[in-house]
Every structure is written in structure tokens, then in C-alpha cells.
Design a protein that fits this description.
alpha+beta; 4-stranded mixed β-sheet; 4-stranded antiparallel β-sheet; 3 helices; 10 strands; 20% helix; globular
Length: 107
């Protein structure tokens, strides 16, 4: 059973489909535009992801706020919970979020 599970993990890493599921590499998620479906505004592009080390599941997407929106030169980023992701397409990620709840000021 352990050998079979390792084979499935290896197969999933090296192929885009496994048992009817579709997989994506993190590098493919990088630089996709993130669009909020609540107000149809572009939040920016995916710069990074946070994931759970134990489960390997993505916890959130990190999207830097564009420079023209920054206040007084502070670096601000959106931390979007992965549960708020509604769709991942070839060019964009659609999310449903309240922007005020996902803002994180970098220190």
C-alpha cells in the first residue's frame, strides 16, 4: 500500500492528470492575474503561495498590491485564503473576497 501511494505521488508530480484529477504546478500559478468576482477588479498577480507543511495543501495565495495603490510607500499584500478561489483559468484566478479582510501590511 505504501509503495502504491508513493507511486501515485510521483505520478501526480510528473504528470498533469491522475485518476481523473487535474494538477497544476506552483510555477504555473505564478504571475496569473487575480480578479475579485465581487467587484470585478484586478487585485494583481500571484507572487507566492502559503501551504500547510503537514498536508502539502495550499492555504493562501499572496498577491502584492500594485504600486499605484500603495499608501505612503508601505508594502502591502493581499493574503487570499485558497477557500476563496472560485476558478483557476489559463490566464487568471477568480476569487470571491472582501478586500478589507485580506490586506496584510508587510513589516
Amino acid at each position: 500500500l505504501i509503495v502504491l501511494r508513493i507511486f501515485h505521488l510521483f505520478f501526480a508530480y510528473n504528470n498533469t492528470e491522475l485518476l481523473g484529477g487535474v494538477f497544476m504546478r506552483i510555477c504555473e500559478l505564478h504571475n496569473k492575474q487575480v480578479i475579485n468576482t465581487c467587484d470585478c477588479k484586478i487585485l494583481g498577480c500571484v507572487a507566492d503561495v502559503e501551504f500547510n507543511e503537514c498536508t502539502g495543501c495550499i492555504q493562501s495565495l499572496i498577491v502584492p498590491v500594485p504600486e499605484n495603490v500603495l499608501l505612503f510607500g508601505r508594502e502591502i499584500e493581499y493574503v487570499i485564503p485558497f477557500s476563496c478561489v472560485r476558478c483557476i483559468g489559463p490566464d487568471a484566478v477568480l476569487v470571491e473576497v472582501n478586500v478589507e479582510k485580506i490586506i496584510n501590511k508587510c513589516t
